[in-house]
Predict the 3D structure of the following.
Amino acid sequence: MAKAYLGLGSNVGDRKANLVSAVKILEKNKQIKIVGISSVYETEPEDYLDQEKFYNIVLSVETNLSPLELLYECQLIENFLKRERIIEKGPRTIDVDILLYGNQEIDNEKLKIPHPSMIKRAFVLIPLLEIEPDLTLPDGKLLKKFLNLLEVGSKVKKLENLKIDCYTE
């Protein structure tokens, strides 16, 4: 099984319910095992600023799926939860991104791993490092070094009273 990390975000509708729904769908897939879930973080939008704040989490998973099969599963979740792509980087019910997949590096028209923006996004690095503090990129660079280069300020706020637990029975 390969270890992968997924970034999830929502800023349309019931943000927590959207994240919970995505996690539940992932858990039902027999080829994906969730092994870690970060806290929920409320984050300011980036790039397209005229939208609501996001709730973000990161999951660590073990999977038998190939990177492209995992991407397909992520897209199925987005479609099931009615993600609309009206404005690039705009509002969304759910976003499910593959951040890392083992030590693989992939760069093609369908998939880029490591996720190309992750080292520039505190809303990805903070929850990712919460569940795996010494995580590295495939080239061996520590991810926490990239976080030290970012201005976090109040853009990323940990929601202490909001947890998303595994529901596996």
